[in-house]
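Priority: medium. Attachment 1 of 2:
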């Protein structure tokens, strides 16, 4: 059966498109097709690329501060 997109196939498709849509409409169709392909590529890129890493989360210290061991101790009176 051969390759699907041989040069003669592309030429025949171009002639058929020209006959169906005319010379004025072909640039508009090409522009729309190009924009559609660009959007498709951007959508695929978003699916295949790994998500960006999440920003690091800073942990809050919820434990009470340790007792100061170097603080002077007052003598008890009594």
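Attachment 2 of 2:
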């Amino acid at each position: 059966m051969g390759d699907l997109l041989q040069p003669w196939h592309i030429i025949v498709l171009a002639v058929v498109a020209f006959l169906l849509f005319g010379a004025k409409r072909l640039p508009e169709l090409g522009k729309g097709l190009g924009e559609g392909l660009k959007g498709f590529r951007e959508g695929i890129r978003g699916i295949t690329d790994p998500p960006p890493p999440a920003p690091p989360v800073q942990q809050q210290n919820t434990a009470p501060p340790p007792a100061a061991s170097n603080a002077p101790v007052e003598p008890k009176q009594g």
